[in-house]
Amino acid sequence: MYESPESCAVPSYLLPEGASISSRGELLLHGVPVSQLAREYSTPLFVYDASHIRQRLRAAKGHFSGKVAYAAKAFFCKAMAEIVSEEDVYLDAASMGEIFVALAGGVTPEKIIFHGNNKSTEELRFALSHNVGLVVVDSFDEIERLEAIAEGTIRVGVRITPGIEAHTHEFIRTGQDDSKFGFNVQNGDAEMAIRHMSKSSVLDLVAVHAHIGSQIFSLDSFRQEVEVLSQLLADVDIAEVILGGGLGVPYVRGETAPSIDQWVATLDDYGFKTGLSKGRTLVVEPGRSIVATAGLTLYEIGTIKRIPGVRDYVSVDGGMSDNPRPVLYGSGYEAFMVQRMLDPHDAKYSIAGKHCESGDVIVRDAWLPSDIQGGELLATPVTGAYGFSMSSNYNKVPRPGVVFIDETGYRVVIRRETLQDLIRNDI
Length: 427
Ligand code: LLP
Prior knowledge:
The chain has helices at 34-41, 50-62, 78-86, 96-104, 121-129, 140-149, 189-199, 219-232, 260-274, 288-291, 325-329, and strands spanning 19-21, 27-29, 32-33, 45-49, 67-71, 90-93, 112-114, 134-137, 154-161, 165-167, 170-172, 183-184, 203-209, 240-242, 281-284, 295-307, 311-316, 336-337, 347-352, 361-368, 377-381, 401-406, 409-414. By secondary structure, it is α/β, with parallel strands linked by helices. Bound molecules: ligand LLP.
């Protein structure tokens, strides 16, 4: 990681590992000016540092005694599946579609963990016919569906809601009566499901799964999860405990989060201390912490609207269709000029998207140079997770392309959609 000068437009911890700045103030990834990628592939464009992704997967594996599964929902495509396969990690898939892409990218079916609160019979049949390694059962209905279609023994896990719900910076213990996911521990459903599945002649119960939330900054929430699970499972004979994902990442200046190695080391440590991992394998399912900081989005500035005394708007050529997180969750992002990294970013703007909604604002208060012009390139960092994967064609805006770059070069891994793509399913 390069050392960002104080005056730099964005701190280095919000950029991919392969980032550096040229003497002219251009952002480079593995030595390539990102402006070159924008010129070649047009904007908006998602750019991922593929080495950063691999490095995060290796860090998680290297500091953990258990298994690491990448959560596909954060960002997925064939090229990402290839990385998962090459780095020899497991995969958390939450739909038939994610399984399909995983198989297309060469992921070993036995390494797929299949999740979902409403897996259809079709999806379950698909998963079983492709020999996925584990189906994490989420409801009594799903038990029935599985037993009805079973042709042999099915390796299953059980998703429980252990009465812990962690939110960023905050820790809330709830009765968990109000969750669409998993079997409720408080009301005895979890115990009943475990008892039923343990006796089933077709279901081979090998794992218990819990996931306490996402974008969590506090390791204490995870310690709590391990402690609660160790008590719950004290007398349960089970080979694997899946602890979910959820590690947070900094999105804006000043935020800090534990590193992925600190996270898995903490889980290991507590697994050992509480006895949870005694005779059992722990499994983690990180998504965001693997891909978020690896990615950034390049936009071209279009209209600049200055409303004296009110606000200056900078509109870019994308918006809520490629990054719905600000609109959905009020999430904060930084923005910076990729060819002017050393120029003072000291004028306040709101970065707006191009969609027909006033709420389509990507960054409410962004700091950019005061003399920016239409046609210049702007980037939002840390868009690698839940950006492209939640993108849409709202206003019939084609989805951006995705480029992977590493020390060996760069390539398009998802091509930009064309106008024809917008009517390919129309009959
Ligand atoms: N495992 C399970 C069962 C999950 O439900 C999730 C995320 C993960 C693993 C991965 O969690 P991560 O490490 O990425 O936090 N769209 C939201 C995030 C939704 C997360 C859903 N489940 C966002 O953009 O913040």
